[in-house]
């Protein structure tokens, strides 16, 4: 690390020493004992501009305090059947680890429908997975590897991606904004697989708008190098998929998968330990305030929307798009 970067971290640390006590307490939850590494993440996200990185982190901590994010892992989505519906329609799962010890997270982008619960449950679930990753998965990986593990790998499976994805763009924008502003630099590399034409068309116009740092993180993989869960026919929300040896293994997207069982049991255990909480209600999601997206990110979303509409027009789908309604939030 260069001298200039070290000075930036020291300046950043001095500014954080002056924040209010509630923000300091929340910051402890964020850095998990790795203060320098956490400050570095926010500095990278703002191109090492100390003032901008400080504002970003303070805004993040205020968002956490105002929305009680520090205790979100003690608020299970109940009943279990409802949570299963969320998992079956928001396809995200821990599929394993790289040789270097980084968690590998699979995301079924093309087959996630987000249509079995309110958007608040999907946002709550997404934040809980982020918090569980940071509080449990990454610390366990760090302990196992004997070195600090602070990032993961994400495999974005585009199987089944269609123009109707425009229906969910507002929800996906909210989730992406939450990640960008409150969990920066947590993904080492994005591998995009099973790419259909619709993605290729959007990628051509979006790629020039991305920062170079972000572009370098995105890799398009060919079919021969895909992991088994990304092979055609193996993706989806079914509870089990056939393994290569002919046996049956649990789909990493499913609630039945070990990683999701561990997460859900952890949240329920934390709820039992939290004496200040009343017993979980049968229904009732947590309403988290969605931060306003960065202007550059908002521009990218508009570009994607425009490109999807163009594709719809070129395929004679303009009438159906005129009836598209973004799910209420």
From TrEMBL:
Q: Which Pfam families match?
A: CRAL_TRIO, CRAL_TRIO_N
**Signal peptide extent:** none
Query: Which segments of the protein form a coiled coil according to its record?
Result: none
Q: The organism sits in which domain of life?
A: Eukaryota
Q: InterPro entries given for it? A: CRAL-TRIO_dom, CRAL-TRIO_dom_sf, CRAL/TRIO_N_dom, CRAL/TRIO_N_dom_sf
The annotated region (Disordered) lies at 274-295
Enumerate the spans annotated as CRAL-TRIO domain.
79-290
Q: Which Gene3D superfamilies match?
A: CRAL-TRIO lipid binding domain
Q: Which PROSITE patterns match?
A: CRAL_TRIO
Query: What is the official name of this protein in its record?
Result: CRAL-TRIO domain-containing protein
**Gene source species:** Linum tenue
